[in-house]
Amino acid sequence: MSWGGGPEEIFLSTSLASYLDRKLLILLRDGRKLMGLLRSFDQFANAVLEGACERVIVGDLYCDIPLGLYVIRGENVVLIGELDLEKEELPQHMTRVSAAEIKRAQKAERDATDLKGSMRKRMEFLDMD
Amino acid sequence: MLFFSYFKDLVGREVTVELKNDLAIRGTLHSVDQYLNIKLENTRVVDQDKYPHMLSVRNCFIRGSVVRYVQLPPDGVDVELLHDATRREARGG
């Protein structure tokens, strides 16, 4: 595969080459957010992330769960964002918590949506909306 | 290849890309490729409060397959030109 010319052209093209060895945020189709260093990619946006971690956000809480070296299949990729290291990664009001705590918060949120769903189902005969 | 050429002409303009997951991102169109993958610069998310993790993303690559709409600048389309190009392409070159 050609890189489409010299080093200047990499920055003009849509190729991911300009993101190599940078810290990136990758959004996946299932809503997960992975962060890590881009080490390799191809034309399908398959990507190798070194030092990958998943950023879990629940309300104002967040947690980075370390994953290791990840190969991401391109079809699951929604967006690849270059992180501006100068800027705050998250708004200041957000708090970092432990993995156990974020799992609890995630479960509480899931239970709440499940409850809402089941209530809605029971009220369906009212023909709301 | 019509829309590929069309988007190439829009490089440098401000566009809003709405994704299939409802995330809408505004930014300067940096480049586009044959899959209609899009690179944006100076991005900002339209509904920032809902997507706090996007705060520090300045440049991004969007996979063409997840794009729902691209909102163009009001003068972003020369209808006459596009019309002609469409007919030319439909005739096969």
Task: Chart the SSEs and their pairings.
The complex is a heterodimer of chains A (129) and B (93).
Chain A: H1 7-12, E1 23-28, E2 33-41, E3 47-58, E4 61-72, E5 77-83, E6 95-96, H2 99-122
Parallel strand pairs in A: 4-6
Antiparallel strand pairs in A: 1-2, 1-5, 2-3, 3-4
Chain B: H1 2-9, E1 14-19, E2 24-32, E3 38-45, E4 57-62, E5 67-71, H2 79-91
Antiparallel strand pairs in B: 1-2, 1-5, 2-3, 3-4
If you average the pLDDT of chain B, what whole number results? 93
Tally of domains of chain A: 1
Question: Strand count, sense and closure of the main sheet of chain B?
Answer: 5 strands, antiparallel
CATH architecture of chain B: Roll
Coarse structural class of chain A: alpha+beta
Look at the structure and give the CATH class of chain B.
Answer: Mainly Beta
Q: Quote the distance from N terminus to C terminus of chain B.
A: 11 Å
Task: Specify the overall morphology of chain B.
Answer: elongated
* Mean pLDDT across every amino acid position of chain A: 90
Quickly give the structural class of chain B.
Answer: alpha+beta
The major pleated sheet of chain A works out as: 6 strands, mixed
Tell me the number of structural domains of chain B.
1
H and E order of chain B? HEEEEEH
Which spans of chain A of ≥5 residues are poorly predicted at pLDDT below 50? Answer: none
Beta-strand share of residues of chain B? 35-45%
Describe the 3D structure.
The complex is a heterodimer of chains A (129) and B (93). Chain A has 2 helices and 6 strands, in the order αββββββα. Chain A is α+β, with helices and mostly antiparallel strands and 129 residues long. Chain A has one domain: SH3 type barrels (Roll). Chain A has a 6-stranded mixed sheet with strand order 5-1-2-3-4-6. In chain A, a hairpin with a 4-residue loop joins β1 and β2. The termini of chain A are far apart. The mean pLDDT of chain A is 90. Chain B is α+β, with helices and mostly antiparallel strands and 93 residues long. Chain B has a single domain, classed as SH3 type barrels (Roll), CATH 2.30.30.100. Chain B is elongated. The N and C termini of chain B lie close together (11 Å). The relative contact order of chain B is 0.22. The interface between A and B is medium-sized, with 32 and 27 residues. Chain A: This is U6 snRNA-associated Sm-like protein LSm1. Chain A: Belongs to the snRNP Sm proteins family. Chain A: It comes from Papaver atlanticum.
